[in-house]
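Homework help board

Subject: predicted structure for assignment chain

Our instructor gave us this sequence and asked us to write out the predicted structure in token form, then describe one feature. I got the tokens but I'm not sure how to describe them. Can anyone check?
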Amino acid sequence: MARVTFVDETTSGSRTDGWGLDIAEERLALREVIRRRVFQEVAEFHARGAGEYRGLVRPASGNGGTDRASGAGRTGGATGGGRMDPEAQCALALAAFERNGFLILVGDRQVEDLDEEIELRLDTEVTFLKLVPLVGG
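My token output:
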């Protein structure tokens, strides 16, 4: 069993404390790693009851329909009493990755293909580097 630590960073230098997730498999496609992260975030949000959602991408119904990578998003009443669909959140995250909304580093290596299998060890760190658009760009 691997203990994967997820860390969020931005190009401006901010870094969140990592949080861990136990994964039984030794190898998973990057797509599945993202999926498991998002599903865990949604499950923890539901367990807390409501409030602010701190996840990989903002909920579509909580930010006017956009899906840019972010550290937080309000869910408000637009999500049907604070319930969030993990499949929809996963689709937003995968789309954001494909549009270069964030990069993923496994250890010190960038993974660019959602179908690439990554090796998971006891101490695997997966960094989600959220890109900040340039002004005027």
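Reply (TA_rk): Your tokens look well-formed. For the description, you could write something like this. The chain is about 25% helix and 30% strand. That's the kind of observation they're looking for.
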